[in-house]
Amino acid sequence: MFRENIIAELKEKIKENPLEIDNYKNLANYYIGSNDLNNALGVYKNILEIKPDDFQSLINLGSIYFYKKFYMEAINCYKQAALIEPENYATYYNLGNIYAEIENFELALLNYEKAIKYSPDKAEIYNALGYLYQDVDSLEQAKKFYSKAIELDSVNFEYYINLANVEQKEGNNIDALTHYEKACHINPNDEKAVLCLANSYSVIKNFEKAQKYFDRALEINPAYYSAWVCKAIAMCDNNQAQDAISLLKQAIEIEPERPNAYILLANILVDEKRFEEALLIYKTVAQILNKDAKISTFIANTYVMLDDYDNAVRYYKKAMKQAPKDNEIKLIYLEMANSFINDKMKGE
């Protein structure tokens, strides 16, 4: 009721004075604060009908379009904003984000460089450039820009996580660990930062500290699906398969529609030679990932381990139908068939 009263009050003010822009902006801000983007979008359109050169309304409207994945509409808003304030970095930064999202590297880079030209001290631009170069595997360039972002804003923990991710991808595990620790020091209650640190300790096989931070991430958010899954992977790496199985079952209870935990659980059950249980899990995830050739192949492989070649052939054929251009599946099928024939010829 409180929300409805505020909206009604703001609408009444607009009705009384339909050309007063601030009333529209207050209403739009309230809609955005309530995550009601559709209504906010409509209000910004109303503002621009009254005042087509309202820079901030164009930026905000573009941001809503971007969030809703209406990229051309967002681009048009930002380009109009650039005509009004051609030296405002925000237009080029936002354009860069859109072009990066649609994987147009050249235009993204061009706009980020323009943003830097007009605001060279904005850390978020360098961070965005780091993402851009990381996406095309230019990791040294990515590190350079993440480091610049940290230089300009040393208390943004996400910049340290981004830099650490690249270091880890390059195999620089100790450097990665240092940056993850810094991120956790800045924001010890951020579940993502804590999970990254836990994973980093797991990578260097320090399972005692990894366990500490996995537990901390789950203390912050007991329903943190990724933490349950990552902790299970660490348990597997530490030869604790039974603990991993329990953790993955917990993850499945939390988010039963996500496939990762099912696949990992079934893979562990196969390693434990619990083939019948694994089949049930694979078939469950096959319903979530409809027509997924990889899952059909896993099912076929498991049937081979059970010496059930009729069902194995059925699922290999299903996998080949789901991914007709995947030569690896065909090769696996042929190897299975040859092995079966050879066994028969030997009388096994």
Q: What is the strand and helix layout of this fold?
A:
Elements: H1 2-16, H2 21-33, H3 37-50, H4 55-67, H5 71-84, H6 89-101, H7 105-118, H8 123-135, H9 139-152, H10 157-169, H11 173-186, H12 191-203, H13 207-220, H14 225-237, H15 241-254, H16 260-271, H17 275-288, H18 293-305, H19 309-322, H20 327-346
Helix pairs in contact: 1-2, 2-3, 3-4, 4-5, 4-6, 5-6, 6-7, 7-8, 8-9, 8-10, 9-10, 10-11, 11-12, 12-13, 12-14, 13-14, 14-15, 15-16, 16-17, 17-18, 18-19, 19-20
Task: Kindly describe this structure.
By secondary structure, this protein is mainly alpha-helical. It has a domain at 284-348: Tetratricopeptide repeat domain (Serine Threonine Protein Phosphatase 5, Tetratricopeptide repeat, Alpha Horseshoe). 80% of the residues lie in helices and 0% in strands. It contains 20 helices and no strands. It has helices spanning 2-16, 21-33, 37-50, 55-67, 71-84, 89-101, 105-118, 123-135, 139-152, 157-169, 173-186, 191-203, 207-220, 225-237, 241-254, 260-271, 275-288, 293-305, 309-322, 327-346. The longest helix has 20 residues, at 327-346.
